[in-house]
From TrEMBL, chain B:
MF-aspect GO terms: ATP binding; ATP hydrolysis activity
Name of the featured protein: Peptide ABC transporter ATP-binding protein
InterPro entries: AAA+_ATPase, ABC_transp_ATP-bind, ABC_transporter-like_ATP-bd, ABC_transporter-like_CS, Oligopep_ABC_C, P-loop_NTPase
Membrane topology term: Peripheral membrane protein
SMART domains (alphabetical): AAA (SM00382)
Secreted as UniProt keyword: no
Any GO BP annotation: peptide transport
UniProtKB/TrEMBL annotation, chain C:
Keyword line: Cell membrane, Membrane, Transmembrane, Transmembrane helix, Transport
Pfam families, A to Z: BPD_transp_1 (PF00528), OppC_N (PF12911)
Name the record gives this protein: Diguanylate cyclase
Family: Belongs to the binding-protein-dependent transport system permease family.
Primary location recorded for the protein, binned into one broad class: membrane
Transmembrane segments: 77-101, 113-132, 138-154, 194-219, 240-262
Boundaries of every ABC transmembrane type-1 domain copy: 73-262
Membrane topology classification: Multi-pass membrane protein
GO process annotations (BP): transmembrane transport
SUPFAM superfamilies: MetI-like
Subcellular location: Cell membrane
First and last residue of the signal peptide: none
CDD domains assigned to the protein according to its UniProt record, in alphabetical order: TM_PBP2 (cd06261)
Length: 317, 323, 272
């Protein structure tokens, strides 16, 4: 049952979410307008003429005041309209919805890997502090933090896919058409993508578990003769849950950002590779649409985490 | 009688509570005067609102209602820049001598700071004045070059006193200014206060929970309970003829510093905890812990009564002239 | 000073310092110590393995890999430092103002920080770089802006804590105005964790710049950059997998060195 205090915290979070979400949309909108000079010039391509610029200005309403442009953009947005790609004339929303499943598959897969590996490493390191296990876990985290994961991805493609032919080197399989094939194909990208998450989770969990083990409560249990592993198993799990919850948002955000590179290396037709292509081709509405959708996704995941946290965390009381 | 140096009228300070929307009424209608050169002691338990009162007196806190007048000037009617220029006249010493000093600045720089802010004199003159004031409170030039963590608690409180006095204030508020110190050092610092008062003609407001300290240094005492004063009297009178049940309970609870004839009298130990200032009791606020409370105590707030010259009490059970 | 020397006894920190020292020297001296012109194309000698003339071999256009590696050090190093400095320069004042003033100013800035933190760093950087135009300077600006909300949030939290300190009240009682309090009491006592954060972000900035150059949104070819070299290596992954070794190792070692430097700075400035 939710107490008064918890429901107040939840109401507060939700109330804060609305202005933040509006600002997220505003930032995405303004990205097109922060460039030096006229957005119409940006859209007019390599060889702009007076007429083509004027035409574009009229077509996209750049001659109107900026807040009016924003409001009409939001209006279209709420109807699911993100404009058309300047390259393919395809609706940006269709392009995103087409590609998002590929992106979400590797992101979720990478989250699972990161949480499983990170939890095992973090807990093992805390339980046997200073041991070989701890040193290995800390070393993995240190290297994972410094590893350019697009480079790791290239190494894996080179060795595991091209030399040993264990995995397909590039591309993606639609999950709904062939779930097993999709997961198999997504394995290398997901491993590459999971690396920085493994470092974050290992480090956070190790620190949190060491704190639990040093608490007076646990010291009493140890004095009674329980082993650290038994204490961790019986009393640490709730702490593990709360600690993992606090890093979900952070790790998810990192994974979404990581898809830009991972999808490029593995030639996966997802939103990340589409964003890079659009950025290089100056296909601004695609850039804007993808940035907005991915940011909203990250925002929503963080909001859910915050709300869960308000429900679960004993310290909120 | 000449106009008082400090006049506080119906002062009220409330803090909104973040989650519930209730307010915590820390100071809830306090009025008093302090004459030039006088020392007023304010006694109360923790939670009585006495520290908040002290901060409001030196205008570190803006009250929700009421006035604070220094030498006839309403501080909170002043525009911010003017108020800043008046601040040198009223200074405060805090309870924690360490936390009151910026850990990254040398002692000399902290003591010089009020002069630097005012821009009085050349830098060399300011340094000389700061060093002179440090010497006056018993610290030498070598100590002036140190950082706060290199000094003892008593030395740090001397630094705070030097900083407060460097621009020659008229009013000094000491908020539990000795209670964080060792007992042996407390006496030194208290005597320093008394010497400085004589030397600089200071007016003191001494805020403390320590009856013995308050009796030792004060001319008059005010007893504070849950945001209000309940009894005000000359120190000697209060010691011998306290009338409010709360004051008497405080006196009875005091173990050693009081003459034995008071201790052997009827003991009325305080029971329970001080109620929450968010939702104070109706009528007389002390009634929930008062050994002699009557039904009328819950019904109405007691009015102030004068029981002797300069001795005022707010209690239904005390007879005296209304005032 | 003694504490710094003690920390340098840690072999990881010492190795990191050594690597960074060598790298900075190499970056500055690249025009003189490079064995070849990093831009010189030799279509008769493409994708050569390491040899006496080309210690690290040649790339797909016959350019000397070692020379390109040395010339790529400067943009990598200085853009990471520049991006972190810019992020701090933007974020710190916003955080200070929000924390110090409170009220609606704080609420507005905090919502802005929340909104910007909803964008993954690299996502925001790619978006900004795309609109500003592809160049190293714009990549640095993009990464700096993307870092700024993190700095602002940290500075705000520290300011809120320091504002409560008694010495701030003491200075206020002495007649100090807002500017005096901010510059002499709040900022000096709030800034340490922000500097520590800057140190810890250097490695992230390095990888972010390399990522943008890898994606074609940073340093533009034919100028040498480690990220750009990896992009070429990706094109020739099947024919010449060795091309990715040198720039990748350089990035990994430099990021490790930055991270250990940041960790050293943390232990030195913020002992807990």
């Amino acid at each position: 049952m939710l107490t008064r205090r918890r429901s107040r915290v939840i109401r507060h979070r939700v109330a804060q979410a609305v202005p933040t979400l509006i600002l997220v949309s505003l930032v995405s909108f303004l990205i097109l307008h922060i460039g030096p000079g006229d957005p119409a010039l940006l859209l007019a391509g390599e060889f702009p003429t007076e007429e083509s610029i004027a035409e574009i200005r009229q077509l996209y309403g750049f001659d109107r005041p900026i807040w009016e442009q924003y409001l009409s953009w939001v209006g279209q947005l709420l109807r699911g309209d993100l404009g058309l790609s300047l390259q393919s004339r395809e609706p940006v929303m269709d392009l995103i919805l087409n590609r998002l499943p590929n992106t979400l598959l590797i992101v979720c897969y990478a989250m699972v890997i990161a949480f499983v590996v990170g939890s095992v490493l973090g807990i093992a390191a805390a339980a046997r502090r200073g041991s070989l296990v701890d040193r290995v876990a800390t070393g993995v985290a240190t290297i994972a933090d410094a590893l350019p994961y697009f480079w790791l991805a290239m190494l894996m493609v080179s060795v595991l896919a091209l030399d040993w032919q264990l995995f397909p080197a590039t591309g993606a399989v639609r999950f709904l058409e062939d779930p097993l094939g999709a997961i198999w194909t997504a394995t290398l990208p997901a491993i590459a993508l999971s690396i920085s998450g493994i470092a974050q989770i290992t480090r956070q969990l190790r620190a949190a578990m060491i704190e639990v083990l040093a608490s007076p409560f646990v010291r009493t249990l140890r004095a009674k003769g329980l082993s650290p592993a038994a204490i961790l198993w019986r009393h640490g799990l709730k702490n593990v849950g709360v600690t993992l919850l606090t890093v979900v948002g952070l790790v998810f955000s990192g994974k979404i950002g990581g898809t830009l590179l991972t999808e490029t290396v593995f030639a996966i037709p997802g939103t990340g590779s589409a964003l890079i292509q659009a950025a290089i081709n100056k296909d601004y509405f695609v850039v804007q649409g993808i940035i907005l959708m991915l940011a909203v996704l990250v925002f929503l995941v963080n909001l859910v985490v915050d709300l869960l946290y308000a429900v679960l965390d004993p310290r909120v009381e | 009688m000449s106009a008082p140096l400090l006049r506080v009228q119906d002062l009220r300070v409330a803090f909104p509570l973040r989650d519930s929307g209730d307010t915590l009424k820390a100071v809830d209608g306090v009025s008093f005067d302090v004459a030039e050169g006088e020392t007023l002691g304010i006694i109360g338990e923790s939670g009585s609102g006495k520290s908040t009162l002290g901060r409001a007196i030196v205008a570190l806190l803006r009250p929700d209602a009421g006035r604070v007048e220094l030498a006839g000037e309403d501080l909170f009617a002043l525009p911010a820049p003017q108020l800043r220029r008046r601040r040198h006249a009223m200074q405060i010493i805090f309870q924690d001598p360490h936390a009151a000093l910026n850990p990254r600045r040398r002692i000399l720089d902290s003591v010089r700071e009020p002069l630097d802010i005012a821009g009085e004199g050349s830098p060399a003159e300011r340094t000389a004045r700061a060093l002179a004031m440090l010497a006056r409170v018993g610290l030498d030039q070598a100590q002036a070059a140190r950082f706060p963590h290199e000094l003892s608690g008593g030395q740090k409180q001397r630094v705070n006193i030097a900083r407060a006095l460097v621009r020659r204030p008229r009013l000094l508020v000491a908020d539990e200014a000795t209670s964080a110190l060792d007992v042996s050092i407390q006496a030194d610092i208290l005597n320093l206060y008394l010497d400085l008062q004589a030397e600089f003609g200071l007016t003191y407001v001494i805020i403390t929970h320590d009856l013995a300290v308050a009796m030792h240094v004060s001319d008059r005492l005010a007893v504070m309970y849950l945001g209000r004063f309940v009894e005000v009297a000359p120190a000697a009178t209060l010691e011998q003829a306290a009338r409010h049940p709360y004051t008497r309970a405080l006196l009875a609870a005091e173990p050693v510093a009081l003459p034995s004839r008071l201790v052997t009298g009827a003991r009325m130990p305080l029971q329970g905890e001080i109620p929450s200032p968010v939702d104070p009791p109706s009528g007389c606020r002390f009634r929930t812990r008062c050994p002699v409370a009557e039904p009328r105590c819950a019904a109405a707030e007691p009015a102030w009564r004068q029981v002797a010259p300069g001795h005022r009490v707010a209690c239904h059970l005390v007879e005296g002239a209304a005032c | 000073m003694r504490r710094l020397l003690l920390i340098l006894r840690d072999p990881g920190a010492a190795a990191g310092m050594l690597w960074l020292g060598l790298l900075i020297a190499a970056a500055l001296a690249a025009p003189w110590i490079s064995p070849h012109d990093p831009l010189k194309v030799d279509l008769l000698g493409v994708l050569q393995p390491p040899s006496a003339t080309h210690w690290l071999g040649t790339d797909d256009l016959g350019r000397d890999v070692l020379s390109r590696l040395l010339h790529g050090a400067a943009p990598s190093l200085f853009s990471s430092i520049g991006a972190v400095a810019l992020g701090m320069l933007i974020g710190l004042p916003f955080g200070l103002i929000a924390g110090y003033l409170g009220g609606w100013v704080d609420a507005a800035i905090s919502r802005g920080i929340d909104a910007l933190l909803s964008f993954p760093t690299i996502l925001l950087a790619v978006g900004i770089a795309a609109v500003l135009g592809t160049s190293l300077t714009n990549a640095v600006i993009a990464i700096g802006i993307a870092f700024s909300p993190g700095f602002a949030r940290l500075a705000r939290a520290r300011t809120l804590a320091v504002k409560q300190e008694l010495y701030v009240d003491a200075a206020r009682a002495a007649g100090a105005g807002a500017w005096w309090l901010l510059t002499r009491h709040v900022l000096p006592n709030a800034v340490t964790p922000v500097i520590v954060q800057a140190g810890l972000l250097l490695g992230t900035a390095l990888l972010a710049e390399a990522s943008l150059s890898f994606l074609g949104l940073g340093v533009q070819p034919p100028q040498a950059s480690w990220g750009g070299m990896l992009a070429r290596a990706l094109l020739y992954l099947e024919r010449a997998p060795d091309l990715m070794i040198a720039p990748g190792v350089a990035l990994l070692l430099t990021a490790l060195a930055f991270n250990s430097l940041g960790e050293t700075a943390r232990r030195w400035l913020d002992p807990r």
